[in-house]
């Protein structure tokens, strides 16, 4: 039995999305040693999976990749991808994280990312990175700009045919790889565990993910992405170019029937952004956004919203009561108009996008003594003066882990968490932190 | 807008765009996917005040049909540079006249980082002008 | 820090590598990338040409690095998106491969080609731009960043919550901090807020806490009653002139309260004014400060409605939300049947949202400066509803009517405040910007004011609501800091707020190195958001100054001693005092006078380059010869 590996750092960042990367960079630039733990096989989080970002319409990849690359190449940052945090405890003034490296079944030291294995693999699996619209192989690199560029085997689908092992030029394939536990010790930690979308199967009235041409907003991100599944926007059921596309706002936000009372803050803006991109991709398509309130509150957002209105995108203040399968693969919406004559009307669209909200992607219960709010996001103990403080000493929170927020606000908060963490590092020797 | 084939003139237009204002301004036009004549070559400069008078004449001699200096104007981050530039361009105009060059081939403008419309107007105007004037001919060896 | 010592590239054979990015279709859908590669592969000095789906990705960068390590290339041209996105990415990649990062030139074939031109023309233009970049690359010289000693001292301008937050954090990390505030009090606008959304904390307590912390820190020097009147220098070594002068006595920021400063104690809180930092100057004095970085925290002011805007100033029963909050804060008796305002019970009151925010050209009137506030002020919805809930629960018989466009209770816990307002039977009316509510004095009747609106929640019905009081939820405007903007050459956005370099890449920095943004000088924010921004700015400042030196771009003027004849024309032309000096040198036993540059002062504008009759001056990385070669290449392409 070999001894558990113990690694020492100044700071530990849990989550390698944009929040975690920004915190890590801001700490590392102050000459602290930082470890970033990411549960996925690549860093970059949700942001790297987006098409373009509001309100500048920069391509998401162009903004995320420099930060990913900067973190990956920083002398003071080590990245640990495809890892789970089992526990995070404090004892004798230090944090101890017990971590499991999940097996890739590919030796990371040998893999050169050449993708020969991927080309040879005979098994096709729906690629969730492309909204499930494309197929990938059972051995694969997550996507073209993933970091690190290491292959992994999806054991659930692998047929163990051995083709990948045969073709690998560096003999990196290891079907017998085991999970490995190791320990990271640090003086401070930043939780940047992000979010997932409200699951589509929760709401019966919206078809529970069973209506083919009702897709999630992240799926639309992929359809719009320059390196998306079809390289153009078509609806999934029959490949038709949609003439009429509808957005259902607050799908999984501000909805007490789902127990989600809060606003997810980004859905208005991403719907408007997608609508603008769609009117570029499909100039003749009608785009309708069914909304309760348009919440375009950030810098430059209101102007962005007004531009979208001027472009002819239709905004209808209405609640969507029910979504049903219509004829010819179309989708029927039953809406309660809140303006006009207020009747319940039915409207038909070729494609419907659910503007899904955010729920936390990580629950600290049983892992570390950090409390959560009624909304299940990590609780901030001083939301005004020090918004990144948690209930656990020396542990800070950044980004959507502490409640929904957009990328701009997330990046600012990540900087703030880094500041708190560096203050803590600075004063932990000489007494209580600020 | 008419198709580009019709609007793009034969000669080449050189655009000296400041890295603080006009160059990002040109990028902003790109982000808006607004199209403009393709005979435009944008060169990134820190401040166009760097170029001596002779540089402009040499460009015309080499066959460049039109030059647009897209500066930051009064927003110029370099102290005094814009006014020095304006004075220099006056002297260039003088030299152009002496060489029989239509001084409209050289434009000094200021373009901000979001001045999409102004950018498009400048390049379209210059393109029209050089289509009308044809290639530059210098009277005497400059 | 890389210790790679560059081999002198001159004399060596120059081998340019060209790397063309598809940008996942962004470029390759319009530029024929393979044809472009073909067009440029035989240009002078080109050693290799590669294409890649994403040049900025790790595999793309490795492609370049491998060619460098294999000795195939010693000059790099990447043709991809705008250099603002990835020039630094590629310079970094090149540096990691052991090559000088300045032997790099960028060709912008996305924003300036594929996104604006199509078909053959796009490929043709891309060819010209890449050829130009190659011509420049062949003439590049290795450069080293300029290292400038930096003072471990930061200056924060504005002692509101963001400024105080930044000052505390910077001091905590060991920097000396000067905190400059123009009023005699610290605490800024937060001092005049009531209960904060959604926690219900008293703003007074919050601001007193952070102010106390700043005052207790001996690394923080607070300069109240002080303005910045002089600015010069550069990152690491700014020099500020401050003017500190006695306030008008008695100080009267909080009308109608008159405050006599000599009765105040250090740390005392005065409603709407702030916290007294301990002293006021008794005579005018000038202070000189040397500082490494400057954090702008100049904050906001409330929009002041125009005369007659929703009846403002035409009736004293029309007030702003800020005025209401102050009234409630000073309310003698916190409970009752009716809220009392100016001695009268308020039976029915109206809130109107988006006053001075979300203005639309053609609908709203610009102010005297021709400005419209097109942005959302972000905080007013929640603040309004918080006030409504507070009134409804303390004064149950005061009825509330709320006129809004969109309710933007986006923040954590804010939606609950909205829900509570509905539960407390606040009545909502929704209006379109082109049909705003009209506030009129009512003729006769029981109520002095009448608010009429076309309510879109009830099918556009025209509704008249008689009320005792109208409260305008006014938005935020940046504090007017014209003098600072001009003096420091700060970038300002179309919305009038200070403009960051990029909202995601560099959200708390402005283009001027060493100047950072904290809080509402950048955009509307609430207290928590302003603190986040301030801490982010403090983190960046610390990273910049902690080492005691700053590295700057090497793009400054240089003198060729072989050519310099000592005319002094360059010094005459140079706008920066001390950047160029004439110095005596010994050449072959003779004394000659030649120009000499102080790199840390030189801004690299190039004004000297143009005036030198013997072409002895050039800007590192942007030489005249390089430009001439680019023009030749573009003409030839």
What topology does this entry show?
The complex is a heterotrimer of chains A (434), B (142) and C (637).
Chain A: E1 5-8, E2 11-14, H1 18-28, E3 34-37, E4 52-53, E5 58-59, H2 60-73, E6 77-80, E7 83-91, E8 94-101, H3 116-120, E9 124-127, E10 134-137, E11 139-140, E12 152-153, H4 163-167, E13 180-186, E14 188-191, E15 195-197, E16 214-216, H5 217-224, E17 244-251, H6 267-281, E18 286-291, H7 301-310, E19 314-325, E20 331-337, E21 344-349, E22 351-356, E23 358-360, E24 395-397, H8 407-428
Parallel strand pairs in A: 1-13, 2-3, 2-14, 3-6, 14-24, 16-22, 17-18, 17-22, 18-19
Antiparallel strand pairs in A: 4-5, 7-8, 8-13, 9-10, 11-12, 15-23, 19-20, 20-21
Chain B: H1 4-7, E1 12-18, H2 22-31, E2 40-45, H3 53-62, E3 64-71, H4 81-98, E4 106-110, H5 116-133
Parallel strand pairs in B: 1-2, 1-3, 3-4
Helix pairs in contact in B: 2-5, 3-4
Chain C: E1 16-21, H1 33-40, E2 46-52, H2 58-69, E3 75-80, H3 83-96, E4 104-108, H4 110-114, H5 120-138, E5 146-149, E6 153-157, H6 161-172, E7 176-180, H7 203-216, E8 220-223, E9 226-234, E10 237-244, E11 269-270, E12 274-275, E13 285-291, E14 293-296, E15 300-302, E16 318-320, H8 321-329, E17 339-341, E18 344-346, E19 348-355, H9 380-394, E20 399-404, H10 414-423, E21 427-430, E22 438-441, E23 449-455, E24 461-467, E25 469-474, E26 476-478, H11 482-488, E27 515-517, H12 527-545, E28 549-552, E29 557-559, H13 569-573, E30 580-587, E31 590-597, H14 607-611, E32 617-619, H15 624-636
């Amino acid at each position: 039995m070999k001894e558990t590996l113990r690694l020492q750092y100044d700071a530990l960042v849990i989550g390698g999305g944009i929040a975690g990367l920004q915190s890590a960079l801001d700490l590392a630039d102050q000459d602290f040693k930082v470890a970033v733990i990411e549960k996925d096989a690549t860093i970059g989080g949700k942001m790297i999976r987006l098409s373009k970002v509001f309100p500048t319409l920069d391509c998401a990849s162009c903004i995320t990749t420099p930060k990913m690359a900067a973190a990956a190449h920083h002398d003071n940052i080590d990245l640990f991808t495809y890892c789970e945090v089992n526990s995070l405890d404090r004892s004798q003034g230090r944090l101890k994280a017990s971590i499991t490296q999940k097996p890739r079944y590919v030796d990371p030291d040998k893999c050169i990312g050449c993708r020969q294995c991927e080309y040879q693999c005979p098994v096709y699996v729906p690629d969730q990175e492309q909204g499930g619209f494309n197929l990938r192989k059972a051995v694969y690199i997550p996507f073209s700009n993933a970091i690190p560029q290491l292959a992994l085997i999806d054991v659930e689908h692998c047929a163990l045919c051995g083709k990948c092992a045969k073709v690998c030029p560096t003999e990196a394939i290891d079907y017998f790889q085991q999970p490995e536990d190791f320990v990271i010790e640090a003086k401070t930690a930043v939780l940047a565990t992000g979010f997932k979308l409200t699951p589509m199967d929760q709401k019966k009235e919206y078809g529970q993910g069973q209506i083919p041409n009702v897709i999630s907003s992240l799926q639309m991100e992929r359809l719009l992405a320059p390196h998306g599944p079809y390289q153009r926007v078509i609806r999934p059921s029959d490949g038709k170019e949609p003439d009429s596309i509808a957005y259902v706002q607050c799908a999984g936000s501000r909805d007490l029937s789902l127990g989600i009372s809060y606003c997810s803050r980004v859905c208005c803006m991403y719907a408007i952004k997608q609508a603008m991109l769609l009117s570029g991709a499909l100039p003749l398509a009608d785009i309708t956004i069914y909304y309760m309130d348009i919440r375009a509150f950030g810098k430059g957002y209101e102007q962005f919203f007004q531009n979208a209105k001027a472009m002819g995108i239709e905004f209808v203040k209405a609640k969507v009561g029910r979504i049903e399968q219509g004829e010819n693969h179309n989708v029927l919406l039953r809406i309660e108009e809140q303006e006009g004559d207020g009747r319940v009307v039915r409207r038909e669209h070729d494609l419907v996008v659910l503007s899904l909200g955010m729920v936390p992607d990580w629950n600290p219960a049983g892992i570390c003594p950090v409390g959560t709010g009624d909304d299940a996001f990590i609780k901030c103990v001083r939301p005004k003066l020090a918004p990144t403080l948690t209930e656990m000493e020396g542990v800070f929170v950044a980004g959507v882990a502490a409640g929904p927020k957009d990328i701009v606000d997330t990046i600012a908060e990540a900087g703030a968490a880094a500041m708190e963490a560096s203050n803590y590092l600075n004063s932990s020797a000489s007494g209580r932190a600020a | 807008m008419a198709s580009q084939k019709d609007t793009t003139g034969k000669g080449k237009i050189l655009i000296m765009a400041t890295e603080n204002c006009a160059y990002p301004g040109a990028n902003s036009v790109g982000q808006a996917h607004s199209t403009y004549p393709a005979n435009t070559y944008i060169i990134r400069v820190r401040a166009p005040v760097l170029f001596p008078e002779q540089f402009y004449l040499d460009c015309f001699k080499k066959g460049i049909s039109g030059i647009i200096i897209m500066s930051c104007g009064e927003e110029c981050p370099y102290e005094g540079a814009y006014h020095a530039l304006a004075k220099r361009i006056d002297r260039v105009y003088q030299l152009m006249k002496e060489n029989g060059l239509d001084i409209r081939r050289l434009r000094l403008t200021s373009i901000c980082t979001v001045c999409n419309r102004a950018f498009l107007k400048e390049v379209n105007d210059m393109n029209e002008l050089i289509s009308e004037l044809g290639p530059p001919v210098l009277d005497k060896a400059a | 820090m890389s210790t790679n010592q560059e081999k002198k590239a001159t004399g060596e054979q120059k081998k340019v590598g060209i790397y063309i990015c598809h940008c996942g279709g962004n470029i390759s859908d319009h530029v024929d990338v393979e044809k472009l590669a073909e067009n440029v592969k035989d240009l002078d000095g080109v050693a290799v040409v590669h294409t890649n789906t994403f040049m900025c990705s790790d595999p793309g960068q490795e492609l370049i690095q491998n060619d460098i390590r294999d000795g195939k290339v010693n000059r790099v041209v990447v043709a991809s998106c705008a250099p603002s996105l990835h020039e630094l990415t590629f310079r970094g990649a090149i540096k990691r491969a052991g090559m000088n990062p300045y032997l790099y030139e960028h060709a912008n074939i996305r924003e300036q080609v594929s996104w604006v031109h199509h078909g053959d023309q796009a490929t043709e233009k891309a060819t010209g731009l890449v050829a130009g970049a190659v011509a420049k690359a062949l003439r590049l010289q290795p450069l080293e960043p300029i290292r400038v000693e930096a003072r471990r001292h930061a200056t924060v301008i504005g002692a509101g919550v963001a400024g105080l937050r930044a000052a505390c954090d910077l001091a905590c990390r060991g920097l000396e901090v000067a905190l400059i505030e123009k009023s005699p009090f610290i605490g800024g606008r937060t001092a005049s807020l009531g209960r904060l959304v959604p926690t219900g904390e008293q703003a007074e307590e919050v601001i007193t806490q952070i102010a106390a912390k700043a005052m207790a820190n001996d690394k923080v020097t607070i300069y109240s009653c002080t303005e910045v009147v002089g600015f010069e220098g550069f990152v690491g070594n700014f020099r500020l002139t401050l003017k500190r002068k006695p306030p008008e006595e008695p100080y009267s920021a909080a009308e109608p309260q008159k405050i006599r400063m000599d009765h105040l104690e250090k740390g005392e809180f005065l409603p709407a004014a702030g916290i007294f930092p301990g002293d006021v100057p008794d005579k005018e004095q000038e202070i000189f400060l040397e500082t490494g970085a400057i954090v702008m925290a100049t904050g906001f002011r409330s929009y002041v409605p125009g005369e007659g805007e929703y009846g403002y100033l035409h009736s004293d029963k029309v007030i702003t939300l800020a005025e209401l909050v102050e009234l409630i804060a000073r309310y003698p008796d916190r409970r009752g049947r009716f809220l009392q305002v100016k001695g009268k019970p308020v039976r029915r009151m109206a809130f109107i949202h988006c006053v001075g925010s979300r203005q639309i050209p053609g609908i709203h009137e610009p102010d005297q400066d021709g400005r419209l506030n097109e942005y959302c002020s972000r905080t007013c919805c929640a603040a309004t509803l918080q006030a409504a809930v507070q009134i409804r629960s303390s004064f149950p018989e005061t009825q509330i009517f709320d006129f809004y466009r969109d309710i933007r209770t986006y923040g954590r816990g804010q939606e609950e405040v909205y829900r509570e307002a509905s539960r407390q039977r606040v009545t909502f009316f929704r209006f379109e910007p082109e049909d705003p509510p009209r506030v009129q004095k009512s003729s006769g009747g029981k109520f002095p004011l009448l608010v009429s609106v076309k309510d879109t929640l009830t099918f556009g019905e025209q509704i008249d609501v008689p009320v005792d009081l109208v409260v305008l939820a006014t938005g935020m405007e940046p504090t007017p800091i014209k003098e600072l903007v001009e003096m420091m050459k700060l970038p300002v956005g179309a919305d009038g707020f200070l403009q960051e370099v990029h909202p995601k890449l560099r959200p708390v920095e402005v283009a001027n190195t060493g100047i950072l943004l904290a809080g509402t000088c950048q955009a509307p924010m609430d207290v928590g958001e302003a603190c986040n921004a301030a801490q982010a700015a403090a983190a960046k400042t610390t990273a910049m100054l902690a080492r005691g030196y700053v590295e700057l771009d090497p793009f400054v003027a240089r003198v060729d001693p072989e050519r310099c004849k000592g005319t002094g024309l360059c010094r005459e032309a140079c706008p920066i005092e001390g950047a160029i000096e004439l110095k005596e040198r010994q050449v072959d036993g003779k004394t000659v006078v030649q120009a000499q540059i102080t790199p840390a002062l030189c801004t690299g504008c190039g004004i000297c380059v143009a005036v030198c009759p013997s072409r002895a001056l050039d800007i590192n990385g942007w030489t005249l010869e390089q430009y001439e070669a680019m023009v030749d290449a573009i003409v030839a392409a």
